[in-house]
UniProtKB/TrEMBL annotation:
Pfam families: Sec_GG, SecD_1st, SecD_SecF_C, SecDF_P1_head
Gene Ontology cellular-component terms listed: plasma membrane
Gene that encodes the chain: secD
One GO BP: intracellular protein transmembrane transport
Source organism of this protein record: Candidatus Zambryskibacteria bacterium RIFCSPHIGHO2_02_FULL_43_14
Family: Belongs to the SecD/SecF family. SecD subfamily.
InterPro entries reported for this sequence: Acrflvin-R, SecD, SecD/SecF_arch_bac, SecD/SecF_CS, SecD_1st, SecD_SecF_C, SecD_SecF_C_bact, SecDF_P1_head
Membrane-spanning parts: 7-26, 265-287, 294-314, 320-341, 372-388, 394-421
Protein name: Protein translocase subunit SecD
SecDF P1 head subdomain domain boundaries: 153-247
Domain of life per record: Bacteria
């Protein structure tokens, strides 16, 4: 018995040290912190741009959208925007979207024109084969759209590794050298091998830039864009391509801004609601459940600290919806303690000792705690998988909170309670470990 209590004391001290380190090393906000909190636009203000992606000529829509997201992130990061949020939403019956969408959040940028300029007109680079009757069509109708004269090859800017400014060694004319990644290089080699003697047109934003004839297979993943470029034009094109040639066209669908004052008010209101709710909850727990209630408050503080630590380390972008999910999870974290305490009260009524009643209370409550939390986790996973960006923020904080609440209820509360459970029972001690109007 003494050996068991010694282990419990050591566990309790280690838990306190762990939680304290979490607070002092991670939670304290300071300039240049390694793990700062990441807040959404609705809490700090900024601009949200929603783009509609044209996937009509793309086979691998998922891959193209992932590449589009990476390209836009890279371009936004170049301009030093703090914590940009770039995400995609798929079309489908569940999401309610008719088109693939790209959502770009720019914290601190409240000028929509400036935000649109940051995204810019990044070029859509494509390599297409000329259709057999392209020349005849152009002769008959010179105004025929260029796109209709060329056949998509699947080779686009998404496979571009880098672009560089070059000069023709014979003429000195500026041109743009391209280098593809491994997958793009293999596709380029396949195209040039199978279509010797054909025109492989290079289109930028749907405009024909160059139409060279394939002389032989090109295996070194290299290509050139030639044309009547001035050095300045070629340099600008290289810069834009290196910023990110979009794998598919996008068009601005909607935009909105949230003022910094409004965002700060929403954040302060959310934090204030959480603090008031926590104080009210703590008073109720201590009043109704007495000493175990005080322990549950300590466990709840540990839960909040651990949750915020994980939110920083993942990191989780906290939005108004996410903050609501976190506050909701605090209430759910109490459910497990309530179940344990009520089961313990039933065992005390049967005349069992405080130690045995607590032990039996945890054992009997575990199945209910497990089932209720698993159902909440499943709900959070489904919401995160199928929901919009706002719903995903709510689902993520809720899901993380539920998982941590299981840990704090079963581990932290249990360790602290058994660390203070009396060896012998007295009427006063049984009163402290009872609850409600039960003595």
């Amino acid at each position: 018995m003494k050996k068991s209590r010694k282990h419990i004391y050591i566990s309790a001290v280690l838990l306190l040290v762990f939680v304290s380190l979490g607070y002092f090393l991670v939670l304290q906000e300071r300039p240049g912190a390694r793990f700062p909190f990441s807040f959404g636009l609705d809490l700090v203000g900024g601009t949200e741009l929603v783009y509609r992606a044209d996937t009509s000529n793309v086979e691998d829509i998922g891959g193209a959208m992932d590449t589009l997201k990476e390209v836009i992130e890279r371009r936004v990061n170049i301009f030093g925007v703090s914590e940009p949020l770039v995400q995609t939403e798929s079309a489908g019956l569940v999401s309610g979207n008719k088109d693939e969408r790209l959502i770009v959040g720019l914290p601190g940028i409240t000028d929509i024109d400036q935000a649109i300029e940051l995204i810019g007109q990044t070029p859509v680079l494509e390599f297409r084969l000329a259709s057999p009757d392209a020349q005849e069509v152009l002769k008959a109708n010179p105004d025929t759209p260029v796109d209709s004269l060329f056949i998509a090859t699947g080779l686009s800017g998404r496979y571009l590794s880098k672009a560089r400014l070059e000069f023709d060694p014979n003429t000195g004319v500026a041109q743009v050298g391209l280098e593809f990644n491994k997958e793009g290089g293999e596709l380029f080699a396949k195209i040039t091998r199978e279509h010797k003697g054909e025109v492989l047109a290079i289109l930028l934003d749907g405009a024909l830039i160059s139409a060279p004839v394939i002389q032989d297979e090109i295996r070194d993943s290299q290509a050139q864009i030639t044309g009547s470029f001035t050095p300045a034009e070629a340099r600008d094109l290289v810069r834009n391509l290196n910023y990110g040639a979009l794998p598919l066209p996008i068009s601005l669908s909607t935009s909105q801004t949230v003022g910094a004052t409004l965002g700060e008010a929403a954040l302060n209101s959310g934090v204030e609601a959480g603090v008031i709710g926590f104080i009210a909850l703590s008073l109720f727990l201590i009043f109704w459940y007495r000493l175990p209630g005080l322990v549950s408050v300590i466990a709840l503080i540990s839960y909040i600290i651990l949750s915020l630590v994980i939110f920083k380390l993942i990191p989780v972008t906290l939005t108004a919806a996410g903050l609501a999910g976190f506050i909701l999870s605090i209430g759910m974290a109490v459910d497990a303690n309530v179940l344990i305490f009520e089961r313990t009260k039933e065992e005390l009524k049967k005349g069992k000792s405080i130690h045995d009643a607590l032990h039996e209370g945890f054992s009997r409550a575990w199945l209910s705690i497990r089932d209720s939390n698993i159902s909440s986790i499943i709900t959070a996973v489904v919401l995160f998988w199928l929901g919009t960006s706002a719903v995903k923020g709510f689902a993520l904080t809720l899901g993380v909170g539920v998982v941590i609440s299981m840990f704090t209820a079963i581990t932290v509360s249990r360790t602290f309670l058994f660390a203070i459970v009396p060896v012998t029972d007295t009427r006063a001690k049984r009163f402290l470990f009872s609850n409600g109007f039960h003595k």
